[in-house]
Each structure stands twice: as structure tokens, then as C-alpha cells.
């Protein structure tokens, strides 16, 4: 689909589980985008003049509205992209429950700080950048807009949110809730696909906050480079899990099942590659197979469903092609691997995979757990790092010091030991290598949505400027 027509064009949001139309959306025309940017630019003057704390106070009541509408938002998200209903409601509730603390963390991160030496007193200020384009994917259709929009707004920018064409309805509902409290034109939604996204990137904006695939990220970086626009790119992954020989096998298998099949594998930090010590390979595969058999795939709205469909037929075709190529090259199927009805792909376990297979090199974004045995830790680390991606990773092993030493050798932004890769509260969400370019969350992440300014003065007015300090 490409929505580039000058006249208003309609497109449909389709439930991937049953093909039903969830709703119709009018795409933003390309002619309207500069007008929306101009409005956002005008609104930014007053919005940016407020303190971060005042901006946060304006948005604070949105938390209760979000909480009250969590079920409705979750239901819409589930129907738009096929996430099991409980998880979708959980996503909305997570945003609502964390809203106030998130606002406080951002305000705190943007507070002025002082730096001084013997001669100079400096104030670091975090000023707005201007108009921000927040371009988001479909896999966490509430959380991704939330994590992009909130820090951008509190930093004093105005925001044009361009959600995925797969999940425009729920993102627009999220924006509507915030807009019940925001002044006019501080937050607006641009509807459409990559055509509208690109037009926004090329428009007169100052910050691009993008979450999506590595390929689109590279295109955006190229387009933004011409205007030296500030970019924050959160991109795809190919996360490894290393299961060391002293690992709690049951725990590691439970983690692998959850993290390979959650959201039907459509998670940026899904476990897509599993490297297991050869001495425990068979036992690990048995545990993985038993736990995978307990998953329930089906209608995302049914209360016991744990795995839904792929978001669309294109995504299904990509996943099935990778599975088939791996089988043709010698992978052993221990679960799934079959073609299912509609957009569904059965939770699949592939053993005996190698890095000659595309499924071990390119992002899959589907419900597939791929297992390769390793002979020693050096080989495990080499395999884990044999990828251009570097988002998350996990290491399982009972000896914490040993597992930590392995974790430190993995070239990823976030590595979890006996847990997923997400850090403690206040940690950034950060990708290494081609998984990220800039990052968000935590004080360090929030400051990337602002322009740092340093204002300095001499502590003593009588002191002459030395050449070195007068630069
Ligand atoms: P995508 O790159 O296809 O699309 C993302 C967004 O970019 C959509 O809104 C799309 O319309 C827009 N877009 C497409 N082309 C554009 C262009 N040339 N200029 C501007 N905008 C453009 O990604 P997707 O399929 O929606 O999402 C899945 C991807 O997102 C996966 O690779 C996944 O790993 C990644 N992801 C990463 C994180 C993270 O935190 N690192 C989180 C969630 C998803």
C-alpha cells in the first residue's frame, strides 16, 4: 500500500486474526503536512516557553483518563494488530500506571544543573528543539507512541505523531486522550504509511524520533542528514540467548518460550537465536518443546490465547520463507513449521540451525525459536556477536560472576543475566551497532529530546581572560 494521493484517500485497518475491517482512516494528504508543521511550529512558541514542570502538570490528568480507557484501548490494539487481548490491555495499563512517574523522571532529567571549576560557573539548560516527528511501528501500538511523544512534549517540543498504518486507530485514540489536556496544535496525528512518514522527515522539523526497522531507519537517516536534523532511531534486533552449561535449564527454557513467542515473536527484543552448551542441548530442547506445546494459539480475544497471528500476510510470508529456507538447509523441526490458516504461523522450534541460514542472520519477527549448540564459551560469544544487530541479549548461568563475564563480551545495548534485557527503572532503552542511533528512556534518554545549552560566567569579574579559556 502506498498512500500518496493529493486528494484525501481512505485506507482500512484490518484485524489480522479474521480479516474484518476494524475501521477506516483518512490518510493525511502530502499537501496538508507542511500546514500541520507550520501550526505545530506556531504552537511551539508558547508551549516551549513553559517550564518542563508546568508542561508535565498540564498532562498529569491524562493518566487517569488513560487508565479509565485502558480496556477500550487494549481491545482496539488487539483487533488492529492481533496481540492477545490481555497483553494489549496490559500495554495500555502499563502506560497509564507509569504515567506520573515518567513525567517526574523527565522533568527531573531536564532540570538545570550547575558545573563549576576554579574560575567559571556554568549552567546546563535543556531547551526545546522545535517540532518533533514521532514515527512509530505497530508491534506495541500504544507504548511506542507513548515513549516517543511524552519526552518530546515535556522537553518543550510540539509533536506530529505518524503511527504505523497498521495501528493508526489506537494511536489516534492515545493522542486524543492527551489532546483533551494539551493546548491546540501541540500534538497532532499524521495518518498514512511511509509516504507520509518520509514527507514529515523532509518537512521543516527539528527532531525525528523513530522506532521501526533498520532499513527504514537508514532511509530516515539519509533523508535527515541533508538538514542535519536531530534523530533518535530505535531499530530492529536479532537478540541472542546464551545458555551456559551450569544454567537452570527449566528457567532458561521458560524464558526462551516467553521471549521467542510473546506477541507472536513480533517484539524488537525477541529471543531470535538460542546458543546452548552442547552438553545440555538435548535436555534444553526437551524442556523447550514441552513448554512450547502448552502455548495456545488462536483468536487474540479468547481469554486463554497466548499466541496470536502475524500482523499481516506480508509478515507471515517473510517468516514462513525463513523457516522453509532453514529446513531446506538442514534445520530440524521440533515444533510447528507448518503452514497455518490466515495470518497465523504456529510456534516453531528449529534445531541444528547455522549462520548460513537467513533465519540466524536477518530479523525474523515471528514465533520461531532457533537453537544452535556451542562447544565452548568463546564460540558462543563469537556466534552471539556475529550480527550487525545489537539490541538486547540474555545469558543464563547459575554462576553469576561467570555469566556476567560472558554478558560483558556481548555487543548489545542491553544484556540480561537470568532475565530479559530490560534494565532497572531509570535505565535507558538502548541499541548498539545497527540496532540504534540515539536512544530513549531514563534521564540520559530524556535529554536527547532537548538541546543542551551551556551558559557560563566568570566567578570573579576582576579576573582577566586567559587565551585558553577565551576560546
Ligand atoms: P517499519 O520500519 O516498516 O515502519 C515503522 C514506521 O515508519 C511506520 O510508521 C511506517 O509507516 C514509517 N515509515 C516507513 N517508511 C518510512 C520512510 N521512508 N520515512 C519515514 N517513515 C517511514 O517498521 P514496522 O514494521 O512498523 O515495525 C517493526 C520493526 O520495528 C522491527 O524491525 C522491530 O524490531 C522494530 N522495533 C524496534 C523497537 C526498539 O525499541 N528498538 C521497538 C519496536 C519495534
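Sequence proposed for the structure above (471 residues):
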Amino acid at each position: 500500500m502506498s498512500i500518496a494521493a493529493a486528494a484525501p484517500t481512505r485506507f482500512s485497518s484490518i484485524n489480522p486474526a479474521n480479516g474484518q475491517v476494524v475501521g477506516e482512516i483518512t490518510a493525511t494528504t502530502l499537501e496538508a503536512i507542511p500546514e500541520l508543521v507550520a501550526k505545530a511550529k506556531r504552537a511551539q512558541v508558547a508551549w516551549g516557553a513553559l517550564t518542563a514542570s508546568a508542561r508535565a502538570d498540564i498532562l498529569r490528568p491524562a493518566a487517569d483518563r488513560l487508565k479509565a480507557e485502558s480496556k477500550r484501548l487494549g481491545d482496539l490494539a488487539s483487533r488492529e494488530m492481533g496481540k492477545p487481548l490481555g497483553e494489549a490491555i496490559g500495554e495500555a495499563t502499563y502506560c497509564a500506571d507509569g504515567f506520573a512517574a515518567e513525567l517526574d523522571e523527565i522533568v527531573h532529567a531536564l532540570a538545570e544543573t550547575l558545573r563549576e571549576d576554579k574560575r567559571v560557573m556554568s549552567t546546563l539548560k535543556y531547551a526545546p528543539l522545535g517540532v518533533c516527528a514521532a514515527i512509530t511501528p505497530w508491534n506495541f501500538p500504544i507504548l511506542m507512541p507513548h515513549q516517543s511523544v511524552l519526552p518530546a512534549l515535556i522537553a518543550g517540543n510540539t509533536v506530529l505523531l505518524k503511527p504505523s498504518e497498521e495501528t493508526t486507530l489506537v494511536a489516534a485514540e492515545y493522542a486524543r486522550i492527551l489532546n483533551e489536556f494539551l493546548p491546540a496544535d501541540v500534538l497532532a496525528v499524521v495518518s498514512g504509511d511511509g509516504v507520509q512518514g518520509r514527507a514529515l522527515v523532509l518537512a521543516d522539523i527539528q527532531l525525528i524520533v523513530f522506532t521501526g526497522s533498520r532499513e527504514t531507519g537508514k532511509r530516515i537517516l539519509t533523508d535527515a542528514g541533508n538538514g542535519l536534523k536531530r534523530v533518535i532511531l530505535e531499530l530492529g534486533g536479532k537478540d541472542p540467548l546464551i545458555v551456559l552449561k551450569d544454567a537452570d535449564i527449566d528457567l532458561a527454557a521458560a524464558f526462551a518460550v516467553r521471549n521467542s513467542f510473546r506477541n507472536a515473536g513480533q517484539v524488537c527484543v525477541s529471543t531470535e537465536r538460542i546458543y546452548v552448551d552442547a552438553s545440555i542441548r538435548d535436555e534444553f530442547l526437551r524442556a523447550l518443546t514441552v513448554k512450547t506445546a502448552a502455548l495456545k494459539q488462536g483468536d487474540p480475544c479468547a481469554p486463554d490465547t497466548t499466541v496470536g497471528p502475524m500482523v499481516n500476510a506480508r509478515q507471515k510470508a517473510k517468516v514462513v520463507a525463513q523457516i522453509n529456507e532453514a529446513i531446506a538447509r538442514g534445520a530440524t523441526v521440533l515444533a510447528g513449521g507448518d503452514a497455518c490458516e490466515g495470518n497465523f504461523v504456529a510456534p516453531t522450534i528449529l534445531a541444528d540451525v547455522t549462520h548460513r541460514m537467513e533465519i540466524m542472520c536477518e530479523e525474523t519477527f515471528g514465533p520461531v525459536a532457533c537453537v544452535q549448540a556451542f562447544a565452548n564459551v568463546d564460540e558462543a560469544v563469537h556466534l552471539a556477536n556475529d550480527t550487525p544487530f545489537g539490541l538486547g541479549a540474555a545469558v543464563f548461568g547459575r554462576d553469576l560472576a561467570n555469566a556476567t563475564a560472558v554478558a560483558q563480551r556481548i555487543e548489545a545495548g542491553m544484556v540480561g543475566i537470568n532475565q530479559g534485557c530490560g534494565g532497572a527503572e531509570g535505565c535507558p532503552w538502548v541499541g548498539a551497532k545497527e540496532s540504534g542511533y540515539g536512544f530513549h528512556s531514563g534521564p540520559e534518554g530524556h535529554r536527547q529530546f532537548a538541546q543542551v545549552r551551556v551558559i557560563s560566567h566568570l566567578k570573579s569579574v576582576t579576573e582577566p581572560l586567559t587565551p585558553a579559556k577565551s576560546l
